[in-house]
Write a structure and sequence with these properties.
Elements (H helix, E strand, L loop, with lengths): L1 E13 L2 E3 L5 E5 H6 L7 E6 L5 E9 L6 E4 L11 E11 H6 L3 E5 L5 E6 L15
Parallel strand pairs: 1-8, 2-6, 3-5
Antiparallel strand pairs: 1-7, 3-6, 4-5, 4-7, 8-9
Length: 134
């Protein structure tokens, strides 16, 4: 059996741009992508805290440290500069991969600079689910 799992998350990032005339995708500061385990051209889910819009697209890197979060193409109608968003990196994993998964949550400030991150191992060293520490 495969499970669709969250493997990384950028929490409450601020949309800096929305470019309707771009081909498509979301452009994300490369430093944030690395910290959240998001590869270039990987599919991500973007959710708006303003209007609950959820969009799936692929991620492209912006220069490291730029703080750039730009929704390109059609989602420029739904996400505006200043909106807070949650960006999820998802993976379809088999049971053995799930046991090794350590999802990471990356927290940012209002300039999309990393303030801290948290790793959330699903299983402890004894192979038991970490229900209480998640």
């Amino acid at each position: 059996m495969k499970r669709l799992m969250c493997k990384g998350k950028i929490h409450r990032a601020v949309v800096t741009e929305a470019d309707l005339n771009y081909v498509g995708s979301i452009t994300i500061d490369a430093q944030l992508m690395k910290m959240a385990n998001i590869y270039p051209y990987e599919m991500v889910q973007v959710t708006s805290l303003r209007n609950a819009t959820r969009w799936k697209t692929y991620a492209l890197p912006a220069p490291e440290g730029s703080g750039k979060i730009c929704l390109n193409g059609p989602p420029a109608h739904l996400f505006k500069p200043g909106d807070l968003v949650i960006i999820l990196s998802l993976g379809l994993l088999d049971e053995d991969e799930v046991k090794k998964l350590i999802p990471r949550v990356v927290f940012v400030d209002d300039m999309n600079q990393i303030t801290r991150y948290e790793d959330h191992p699903l299983f402890n060293d004894a192979g038991k689910m970490n229900w209480d520490s998640l």
